[in-house]
Amino acid sequence: MLLASFLMFILNPCRSQWVDISPEIDIWLYDVSNPSDNTIIVVGSQGTILKSIDGGESWGQKNSGTTSTLYKVQFISPQIGFAIGNVILKSTDGGETWNEIYTGYSNFRDFTVLDENNIYILGFQKLIHTTDGGDAWELITNSPPSHTQVQFFEDGVGYIGEYKLFKTTDNGNSWDEIYSPNLEEYEGSPSSFINSNTGFTYWHGLTKFTNDGQIWLGSNPDFSELLDIFAVNENLIWGIIKGVSDFAPPSRGIVKATVIGETTTSYSDEAMWLPENVTLFSIKIFNDNGYVVGYRSDYENAVVWKNETGENYLKTIDVTSMEIPKIYPNPTSENINIDFTSNSSVVKVNLTDFMGKVFFSEEFINQLKINIPVSYLPKGIYLLTIKTNHKIYSHKIVIN
After folding, report:
1. Separation CA 85–CA 73 (nearest Å)
2. By the 8 A CB rule, do 165 and 183 touch?
3. Exposed, middle or buried, 246 (CB in 10 Å: 0-12/13-18/19+)?
4. What is the full DSSP assignment across 100-152?
5. Residues 6+ apart with CB under 8 A from 179
6. E-strand spans in 17-85?
7. What is the DSSP letter of 378?
């Protein structure tokens, strides 16, 4: 089976990067922050706030003053941080103590803290903003409703998303939908922006947004949806793989996508598949440390995993120098040619449509050149996936 071979191929390299530093507590964790090198703050159900000052070797629980679930936490300095749920909380001593900031609203899901005074908070049907640290709040009345993700930048540019993606350039006074044929209106499409003009979203594949528009970077047929993504830079994105069926938990793995080149429509990815009883909600990268948080039902235990391999960042020069197979012609009507610069002991090639139907699947051993006949296929757009010893490449192929 395709899925089984995929699991065997990429399970070990990605798994070895992650270390379990979970606290022994029966709590669902929803978000994580890393205020300084060895300090980790996590938040979750029942108003839980946990803090570690030794990189996750030990944990202490802090008094949040609430029993409501906390969904997000963000520190803007080693001392100053905020958390949201039904309320917004602020700490000025590195997460030791927390105090509520009164807003007049409740039921928050996401927020952006630009500085101690300038904060945007998103609820299911509302977006509020303060410029004085929370003494006064403005309800931005014309913000797009029914979304759960928000991200703002210093220049007044902001994004609201999940079911669609909207952009403002005037601090939320007006919004424009960013239309993409690769986004689905009624399904969650997580997004992550690294600056006011450049970011990514994932729905049946990765789309990159820039000042010049959007680039479809392709998909992996083994997972169509991601629950959360975090863009480290223009070349590196981490994500949480969503459940493979309606009956599966919300997330089933961690994926690392490396965009190859500046304008190419291909990327490679590695994935770590998890047991069905592990549910993850958030993935964050802070300098060289990466974290995922969630819950493990078979052990009735909170989940915190840490990646400190130093492989979270990848410079553009490192990406563009990778050995990338040459694929041509594209568009094509007769054949797809794949040329490699060096032998890979086993290469698996799959050609599918974007619904996952497989039209070609074959393994090749020690071949520098591969030819795939496609003249029998209907005209349309297909996905070519190449799995080598160390990488996975996904390419959009047009057959005309």
Report:
1. 9
2. yes
3. exposed
4. EEP-S---EEEEEESSSS-EEEEESS-EEEESSTTSS-EE-TTSPSS--EEEE
5. none
6. 18-20, 29-36, 39-44, 49-52, 60-62, 72-75, 81-84
7. P
First to last CA, the chain: 30
CA distance 363 to 348: 4
Between CA 30 and CA 36, with CA 34 as vertex, the angle to 5 degrees is 165
Weakest mean pLDDT among 66-75, 111-120, 192-201, 270-279: 270-279
Residue 228 has a pLDDT of 93
Chain position carrying tokens 């549910």 = 279
Please, what sign has the CA dihedral across residues 201, 357, 277, 290? negative
Determine if the pTM surpasses 0.85. no
DSSP labels, 317-372: HHHHTS---EEE-SSBSSEEEEE-SS--SEEEEEEE-TT--EEEEEEEES-SEEEE
* Interatomic CA distance for residues 307 and 22, integer angstroms: 13
The tens digit of pLDDT for each residue in 230-255 reads 998 888 899 998 876 555 567 778 88
**Residue-wise pLDDT tens digits, 255-291:** 888 887 654 455 667 778 787 788 999 999 987 789 9
Q: Round to whole Å and give the CA distance between 43 and 5.
A: 36
Distance CA 322, CA 267 (A): 11
Nearest-angstrom CA–CA distance, 46 and 364: 53
Name residues whose C-beta falls within 8 Å of residue 12's C-beta, 6 or more positions apart in sequence. Answer: none
H-run or E-run covering 8: helix 2-15
The pair of structure tokens assigned to 269 is: 């990815």
In the numeric block, which tokens belong to residue 99? 């105090």
Q: Which pairing describes strands 301-307 and 149-152: parallel, antiparallel, or unpaired?
A: unpaired
The helix/strand count (H/E) of the chain reads as: 2, 35
> What is the C-alpha separation between 270 and 26, in angstroms, rounded?
30
